[in-house]
Amino acid sequence: MLLQWADCGEDSRENSMGQRGGEQRTAGGFARLLGQPDGFFPQTSQGSITPQIATDAYALRHHAAESLVRLTAALSSQMEEAESCVWETLSTGKNQLEDVVKQLRGSFSSEEALEKFADLVLRRQDLQGGMTEQLASAVSVFADWLDFAIALLVGHELQLNAAHNKVKHGLSVRARNDLKVSFSTTPPSADGTIPISALTGPDAIDVFDRPVIEVLATAPKIDGHKQGLELTQLTVDVPAVLAETYMIVWVHGAMFHVAAARHFDGRLDLPDDLYEPLYPGYPIGGPRPNDISTKAPVGMRFPLTTPPGGGPVQRPAGIAYRDLFIPFTFTGPAMHNIRLVDNETEM
Question: What is the pLDDT along the chain (347 residues), one digit of tens a residue?
Fold first, then answer.
């Protein structure tokens, strides 16, 4: 995919030597370096591209979330302890995300938390006239997206951050685009058939109808006791995930600008081409996290093994939404090879 994308538009671009493209320079050079003829590698199918895009979108959102959380923690630490350089604080701060989030929550636990946060994301010149209704709205939206970023990294019923870690460390996840899961209140008939309308009507809920990332990971400890392995299945709505990423990056961009402006303030020895990045503007009124795919299922989890120290599984199977987890209770034998029928015609 990278080779194909790298050569897209070569006809309209100039290479570093000022020459026009057009002969599939990247793919051709790749083949020549391996002593192979041009085009020896297979073309990538759409069935492979779609899950990869979902995986990359998921990883990008988490990367943005962690960047925002760590930058916020570093800036809040600098405000409290008058550190000399925020970038040094960011580079030498705590490594474990749980510790970073704990520090961050401690910094914003006072009654002045919103005012302190406003100092990190609002431009000084805009605050000179006081906190206006529009500025307050922007701060509130920014704060909601910081909370959303924290929720992605710690504390969810599904192992969202474990999935991200397994994407970036060896890609030990399974991305697939062939899984359709629906819940229906209509049970199969005794003959093993179920009408199509039961899966498409108002009493049916689609859980997975788009790419899914599957992760095998050890469940978090419960009351200090180790748990067994879990299978986590996460649905990835690419437009929604990228929209959430965009908003997280918006907060990061605002915070980065304010920090850089403060860093450069009063320095007269800087060259003309060194200045803070542009401010991204204010998201007046939103969108907020609840405005984007708030009703869609996040995914499901299934325990696979019992705790290594013995005893029952303490994290049941279930389906998770953003702020809700519904456990499953399985009763009776499983039914397999159910046939979908429409007007008594087997499908």
Answer: 677 777 776 544 454 444 444 456 788 888 888 888 877 776 777 778 889 999 999 999 999 999 999 999 999 887 666 556 888 888 888 888 889 999 888 888 877 888 899 999 999 999 888 899 999 999 999 999 999 999 999 878 998 988 998 988 888 899 999 988 888 888 888 888 888 888 888 888 888 889 999 999 999 988 888 999 999 999 999 999 999 999 999 999 999 999 998 888 877 787 888 878 899 999 998 899 999 977 888 999 999 999 998 888 889 999 999 889 999 888 877 777 888 888 555 44
Q: How far is CA 97 from CA 73, 131, 162, in A?
A: 11, 32, 12
Q: Which tokens sit at 333?
A: 């034998």
188 CB-contact burial (10 Å; exposed 0-12 / middle 13-18 / buried 19+): middle
Provide the angle, in degrees to the nearest 10, between the axes of the packed helices 133-153 and 160-168.
Answer: 70
The pTM is what?
A: 0.84
Under a CB-based contact definition with an 8 Å cutoff, are residues 173 and 214 in contact? yes
